[in-house]
Specification:
The chain is mainly alpha-helical. The protein is built from 7 helices and no strands. The longest helix is centred in the N-terminal third of the chain and has 29 residues. The protein starts with a helix and ends in a 6-residue tail after the last helix.
């Protein structure tokens, strides 16, 4: 963080601290799984791979913090986030870049509020919660982001445990 308002605002500080913990947990899980397992879906209906979950979380933060709060109109294809595959190192690089952008976006939230409530028009498929765009406060938006990424850390932990579980046949 810089020495801006976000560093002294209690909500902003909590947001950045807890999101940092979530991102570190995601990176740790991806690293443990490696390329093969990180891209594998557990044998459960509707399950996602850990790679896809992190890819989705990057989309969540880019949309809500980068596009909605900061007005940067970052392109997003939410549906494709869940089918994404790739190398863990590449995804870790994207996660690191996101962690570097987030403090600036949180600063906008606490000093200016929401810059672009019309983002639903410019970023197709950006959210399933378009109804809240007209009324969401900066605080609601930050907490929504945090709730979403924390929830997905839990999904990743379960997915990791299922993928690393010794097979019953072995």
């Amino acid at each position: 963080m810089t020495g801006d308002s976000a560093s002294t605002d209690p909500l902003a500080r909590a947001m950045l601290d807890i999101s940092s913990e979530c991102f570190a947990a995601m990176a740790g899980i991806l690293t443990v799984l490696g390329d093969d397992l990180a891209n594998r879906r557990p044998d459960l209906p509707g399950a996602n791979s850990c790679y896809a979950i992190v890819n989705h979380c990057i989309g969540v933060v880019d949309y809500w913090a980068g596009s909605f709060i900061a007005g940067q109109r970052i392109p997003r294809d939410r549906a494709s986030e869940f089918t994404a595959t790739g190398r863990v190192d590449d995804l870790l690089g994207r996660l690191t870049a996101l962690r570097q952008r987030l403090p600036g976006w949180v600063e906008v939230a606490v000093t200016e509020g929401i810059r672009d409530r019309s983002v639903a028009d410019g970023v197709r498929g950006g959210t399933t919660r378009a109804a809240v765009l007209a009324t969401a406060s900066p605080e609601w938006t930050l907490l929504h982001i945090l709730q979403d990424i924390a929830q997905h850390v839990g999904h990743m932990e379960i997915t990791r445990d299922l993928l690393l579980k010794p097979s019953a046949e072995g």
